[in-house]
Amino acid sequence: MKLVRYGARNQERPGVIDAEGNVRDASSIVTDWNGAAFASGVLQKNFDAAKLPKVNDPIRFGACVGGTRNFIAVGLNYADHAAESGLKVPSEPVLFNKAPSCIVGANDDVLLPPGSVKMDWEVELAVVIGQPASYISEKDAPKFIAGYCVCHDVSEREYQIEGSGQWMKGKGCPTFGPLGPWLVTPDEVGDPQNLALWLAVNGKRMQNGSTKTMVFGVYFLVAYISRFMALEPGDVITTGTPPGVGLGMKPPQYLKPGDVMELGVEKLGSQRQTVRETPVR
């Protein structure tokens, strides 16, 4: 099943994509695709998408999950990306937080922070938690996953690595977390370690990768993270990026206003964002 949240910003309604690719309004079934809905078991109920009202208006896809409280990211989870960043492959997962307030829709503009000169791109596979998870095993991890989606882990490298302190400084600026367009349930995705990822800037392909080359797999990551925090329904874990980011180019290449980024993950759809300057207030 492909779940969507559609409509104006902060007014999104829950929907599903039917077999013909149409958006169907699911508000008769659930108030929102969020942690409360996932925890209620609604995804285990059988309902016929074709019987839901068809949405014919022009559609904006919001983030595919609402009300996220924890947005956790994994760093250096592809060995070749670690190499291009000049860093060693970690012996255990590198974790940091992205601010939930940075989450936006799949095709919303990405805003260049004032004074930023090193904004970068990263296509990633994200996991959305469906049930409370604490101290779970890798074997049981699939039971706690509501679905998967495309995440754009937009990053500001000067903020992230040139100052002191945590990586999160360059990861949580407004609009730095596009999610969607869909949340795809595990039955439609199959093996999460066999998905192609790609990203292009202004029509030029920059990233080509596969989740096959992750250092730490999805199920391991969910179980590992549950050792350090209680994962809640609606939480998002974004699992790292393959090589091809601007930081790794010689010379490095960073984003500027007007640049257009297109990215996707196999079976999970694609995103398209334009870089804009942050409006002056």
Tell me about this structure:
The structure is a single chain. With 281 residues, the protein is mostly beta strands. It has one domain: Fumarylacetoacetate hydrolase, domain 2. It is built from 5 helices and 18 strands. The protein has helices spanning 35-39, 79-84, 157-162, 186-189, 218-225; strands at residues 2-6, 13-17, 23-25, 71-75, 94-97, 103-104, 110-112, 119-120, 123-129, 145-152, 155-156, 177-178, 183-184, 196-201, 204-210, 236-238, 260-265, 269-277. The strands form 5 sheets. A 5-stranded mixed β-sheet has the order 5-4-16-9-10, covered by helices on one side. A 5-stranded mixed β-sheet has the order 7-18-17-14-15, with no helix packed on it. Strands 3-2-1-13 form a 4-stranded antiparallel β-sheet. Strand 17 (260-265) and strand 18 form a beta hairpin. It is globular. The termini are far apart. The mean pLDDT is 95.
